[in-house]
Please model this.
Amino acid sequence: MAMFRSLLLLNLVALPAIATGNWAFVLNSTDDDYSVIDMSRYEELRRVPVGKGPHHLVLTPDGKYIVVGNAGSNNLVLVDPVSGELVKRIPGIADPYHLAFSPDNKWFVANGNRLDRVDIYRYDNADFRLVKRVRLPKTPSHMAYSPDSSRVYITLQESDQVARIDLDSQTVDWVVSVGRQPAGIWMTPDNKHLLVAHTGADDLSVLEAGQGGIVKTIKTDKGAHNFTAVGDGRHLLLSNRVAGNISVIDYHDLKEVERFPVPGGPDDMELTNDGQELWVTTRWINRVTVVDWPSRKVKKLIKVGRSPHGLYFRNHAPRQ
Model:
């Protein structure tokens, strides 16, 4: 076990003074930095070096920091979501490709994409205490928690499987086969179904959450990759990265109800809480694409760094 009892404050980057505002944060995975974007002006304000291989990010439960996982640097970095400044670094977190806090805020899980393992930490609003490293088949990718925080579900991208881990015992309940190269995974709020996107195909699997059996396959489009909720309690967005479009999934009726174009390799997404704009990282054209949500039409392209991936802003729509 390892105990990370303090967060190391570093003066890593001398940043020019800048007024706080309504920022969007984008991780540029190939450039090893993040972009700070003024959402009102659709303008990149600056880029901040962060570490090697930043892919995903998540807000701390208290809302004070954005946590960035540097898979290549084996650390976490904390960013102030108000000022946009990089303020703290946590060393010794191995290969944090995808990361998330549990709904009850007691667990923090980091998927080691290149290490073929999942690291489970206890979190107490300050420290990350390593509890268990769980070996899994090849390339743990994305994760989803059960609503009661008792289990975490992991997609295994290069073995075409999904694993369920019991968090209390830190043991693997089951591993089931799904479609090609599963990546994004999303749990329905009723705890009944898991939706699993197949990046190596053009569809998604619907799994029964208890035993992992496939209930249904939903046809979408090529490179089905990642999910985000619309926030209306019924619909989910799925980025089809290869096809260059986004599917709207009705997770009550378990079917695709709409599809609209977002060219350039759409990946991570956030919808504004006023329901007016969908922001999408488009990895192949080094842009953030802003979609007018009511019309489903692209309205802005914002230049960022190479291979933009993780995306966050504070005024996002509800997660269900």
The two ends are 35 Å apart (CA to CA). The chain has two domains: 3-224, 225-320. The longest strand covers residues 128-135. Confidence is low (pLDDT under 50) at residues 1-19.
